[in-house]
Amino acid sequence: MQRNDIFTDTEILMFAHNLEDSNIRRTPQAQPTFNGIRRYNRCQMTLDVVVQDQDGWEIPLESVDISPTGIFVRSNFLFEVGEVHTLIFEVQGKGLFRVQGRVARVEEPDAQADYAGLGGLGAMSASMTPGMGYEFIETHEKTWQDLCAVVAGV
């Protein structure tokens, strides 16, 4: 069998001495995870959260966890990253919170199944709940302090 001088993309990657010399890029095999690189602590907390859009429509959802800078809500109905909503929730002993939040990330239910068989980071991502991670924006100092106390369990 005669070998041609034309290499496949896989062969170039396998035999390249320095991957920087190659223009070939692969799609990552595992979905990125944010575990371990959080700026602020978070705590698992199930709260009833009302998501209100700019037109006044309200969608009742449930939180998975909360931090002083954001909240993750469980939902199969997903908004686009970057959309801004009013989040209304009550924490027992701390009162009612009404905070502006921007959708920072979306965990789609179908995407979870794609990574379930990969193990490692993929397995960690596959256990994530479908929903949206909101980043709080324009938080007043008093609200910030109250959210810190909620996460600290005070």
TrEMBL record:
Pfam families: PilZ. Residues 38-113 form the PilZ domain. It comes from the Bacteria. InterPro entries: PilZ_domain. This is PilZ domain-containing protein. GO terms for molecular function: cyclic-di-GMP binding. It comes from Bradymonas sediminis.
